Amino acid sequence: MRHHHLDLSDKANRLWEKDVLAYPATNPDKDSCSRLSYAELDELATLNSRLLHQLQHLSSQRIILLHFDDHVDNIIWLWSAVYAGFTPAMSTPFPRSPGHCIKHMDHLNKLLHHPICLTREALREQFPETTPFRIVEVECLQAHSKPAAVLETDETDVTLGAPSPALLMLTSGSTGACKAVSLTTQQIMAPDCSFLNWIRLDHVGSLIEIHLHALYLGCTQFYVRTDEIISHPLKFLQLIQDNRVARTFAPNFFLAELARSLESLEAVNLDIDISSNLLGRHGASENVIVPGFGMTETCAGCIYHLDCPRYEIGKSYEFASVGTCMPGDTTRASPREVGNLDVRGPIVFDSHYNDPAATAHAFWPGGWFRTGDTGFIDGTGKLNLSGRPKDILEAALEEAEIPGISLGYTEQVCVVYQNSYYPDDFVARSRVLAAIARRIMLMTNGNPHILPLPAVERTTLGKISRSQLRADLESGKLHAEQVRHDEQIRLYQQHIFKAPETLPEKIIMEEVAGVLKGPTGTMGVESDLFEIGMTSIGLVQLHHRLQERLSLDNKFSIATCMTHHNIRGLAQACYRYQEYNPVVTLRLHGSKTPLWLVHPAAGEALVFVNLAKLIPDRPVYAFRARGFAEGEPFFTSIEECIHIYHTAMKKLQRRGPYAILGYSYGGMLAFELAKVLEADGETVQFVASLNRPPYVSPRLRQVTWTECLVSTSYFLGLLSRKSFRELLREMRDIPKTEAIVRLIDRVDQSRLIALGLNEKKLEQWINVAFSLQEMGRSYEPTGSVAHMDVFHCDPLEFLGVSREEWLKRLSAWQDVSREETKYFAVQGEHATALGPQNVQAFYKTLRHQALAVRGL
């Protein structure tokens, strides 16, 4: 019953002149390829279908698992199974571990209802002796063939409402047991020249986007082994040139390798003329590379972006969007904010074969498929991906460009990476360990388990089997590597370790270990607290613990913890109170121009800690307002504040160029500082405001102390969005004391404790913030600076303005900028732009766009 299956013979009459061409691995030249015409493929598939029917106990409802390592074998036996009326399932590479291999086969055997596995004699050794499969080698099948009459097919049994699978594609199983995605003819037959493929045919893109697409359009197909392309990336372009290839595809990691090769001397002697800026130097058209999104469950690509990179250049995007859906399909994600990505439409699968639980979990009501990815849809309807939650840490490590890492893998708080340093270089090993730990601590606030390995295997698409790595870790298979790693770290600690000498140093070391949830033996008294993973929340917790443990009064401030980066310096500072210092040194060293960060209306510099941890190459200083310590007066005017900040700045950086960034309220102070510096004859090469217009709105002039309390508490993460909205309505005009009591009852108590706050400390913090608010009520900018940059995201909610109106207000910075103002969209909303979930994206925009444009 071939009615529900793919049918090659229906198109045979108009395809006979086309071919499937496969390049041997030994000599992949145009003239030495093996050639299989579509007519020959049809003939072979017909003959082989008769052989398959001779297998005993094989009914028309059985599944055939195709396990081959050759493109042509996969194509021939795929169509042979289809012609015989069976459902082919494309096998993926077996796990190398015997135990995992058996587990994988047992799972497939049950999932696919005891399939027959078709393979070759040369591949038989890949199957363990205890394999549950009934294995049939094609050589044996052909040797024992018997004459058979032409098969008659029954075309009468048609159930249009329930199409049977045309083929089954196995998911990668990178995060657990694989699933079998059922793809029907209706999904696959989508609406040109030759096609090139070099990825295994167990990948949905290879089978559907290349093989079936080319077949449907009547195009020649070229195949080359994966290892030939991986080992010689430029051969990919040469094949495209020689064979006039119109369509192929490649994963991101290979495109990066190709880019590196094109930039090397290897490209000099290539005669490439194919129709991104890099490829353009070799004759390519602007949109030769088309970004897309797809999964096995969507028959490969279902979303494409045909206007790349012109669209991204016009929008000043750093990353390419993936475009819009194919006709008939729909996607949904949050507008302008990162959210879950769902897809539905005629090409989306409707079930995981023989797995109703997985199927139920895969869909939302209304037929929306949960892709597992996250992203947002911009104002023009184009989808922008941000990755999968489980991949975010891996991306963070890759973005960090840590020397000593050549490959990375992350799963929750466990990091396995392939090292590129000498195995016994304990200094390099420890530096990599610290760099990874800082990156993960920033995102998870927890210490990761980190293990380097000599090799971390990836598939041709750059994927890692997370489930197998996790199993190897849990089973003890990697124990020897763990012991070696621990010993190298111990040697390094012995090399640099300086033990505490005084009681305060011992106490502080214990409390630091308690905050970081790590043993004291891994740090010395001169270890940099930020280098070993201290976060902004951790600093507040440490400050609170030390106040109690060492009986320190309120003159011991969080700023003291921020300014003194190691245990020895902090121990000395605990009993040596200094006068108010407006500068907090977040990073002391670096060869590039220092970056000065100006606090928001909350007055504290803590908000910048996570950002500073991402900056590897320049000193970073932050201002904090006066008034946090007991008895310390508030600022009385903007002029006084700017004078104090300017004086402190000149002590640490005597000459320009200067770079200043103000967050919200700090944007106003950054502008005023830049004016004073320019009046001194200094060059201010970068001055920017993060989400603050130059002119104060009437609504901000009306903010009460209670509203300041609620807004600042939300900014500090003490209130949920719901509680924030409710309290703004409920408490606008009530007295201070009652407002504090009501708010304390509604805040996240664990967060309150983590910040070391109580009613009195929170009230003092709000007093500082409100004093800043009051002295800025009548502010109107005068004069100008050379140039002003603006970072923008969603406005403060209680202002009640649209994003469009907010952008209009921000554009007023042009009034006080002598050169053209530059604008940069950033993730998140006003209170979360520098939060853990958005700070990495903000830093990338700051570094690669804003500072780079200004020559910094």
UniProtKB/TrEMBL annotation:
Coiled coil: none annotated. GO terms for molecular function: very long-chain fatty acid-CoA ligase activity. Residues 499-578 form the Carrier domain. SUPFAM superfamilies: Acetyl-CoA synthetase-like (SSF56801), ACP-like (SSF47336), alpha/beta-Hydrolases (SSF53474). GO terms for biological process: fatty acid biosynthetic process. The keyword Phosphoprotein applies. PROSITE patterns: CARRIER. Pfam families: AMP-binding (PF00501), PP-binding (PF00550), Thioesterase (PF00975). InterPro entries: AB_hydrolase_fold, ACP-like_sf, AMP-dep_synth/lig_dom, ANL_N_sf, PP-bd_ACP, Thioesterase. PANTHER family: LONG-CHAIN-FATTY-ACID--COA LIGASE, MALONATE--COA LIGASE ACSF3, MITOCHONDRIAL. This is Thioesterase domain protein. The keyword Phosphoprotein applies. Keywords: Phosphopantetheine, Phosphoprotein.
